[in-house]
Amino acid sequence: MTFFVSAPIFVFREFMRHRIASYNEESGRYRELNPVFYIPSKERKLVQVGKTGSYTFEDGTKEQFDISVKAMKDAYVIAYESYKKMLDAGVAREVARVVLPVSTYSSMYVSMNARALMNFLSLRTAREGSHFPSYPQREIEMVAELMEAEFAKLMPLTYAAFEKSGRIAP
Amino acid sequence: MSENNENHEIIYRDDVTVELKQVQAMQMLFGPREFLQQVNNP
Q1: From A76's CA, which of A70, A138, A169, A170 has a CA 20 to 30 Å away?
Q2: Which residues of chain A lie closer than 8 angstroms to B8, CB-CB?
Q3: Which CATH number belongs to the domain containing residue A45 in this structure?
């Protein structure tokens, strides 16, 4: 199966740890990157509670959300202006892009087979009743949920077997 | 949402998108016997 995914670069950093897929990502060397940046939605849990290896995430306050969004936007404006300044001065795209943050949106084609996709889903979605619980970062889980919906539509029998076996890839 | 900053418009997003582009596979053909039995006899 081949998916076209649009998400921030930090999601792709995690994604590409899954070496069972093949990837073809938009290049920042051969084209100018668009000023599209990630900011969390109001529903995104902002506060980590508990010690390393055993923690949960909880809702942030309105103040924490506002501080985060403002800090991100301020940083993105400075970063993109610096990027454009270098490009306008004739600096190469591959050099100018180093100022852009990992929250810059990118896009890629991901190809994987059904087993690889089930392995990805078992690790990047948090579900009650999974045989092995996983604790993915929310943003990659958002991608995984959309891929799972496509998988369930496309291969209903395989998907049902995946669910029935506790969401373990065979 | 988007905002104008000097000469360029910055777009802020809080979502991700996924599109299924191509399928070159049949449903699961390989795997442990128990899993295949579940696929074949749901």
Answers
A1: A138
A2: 35, 80, 84
A3: 3.30.1360.170
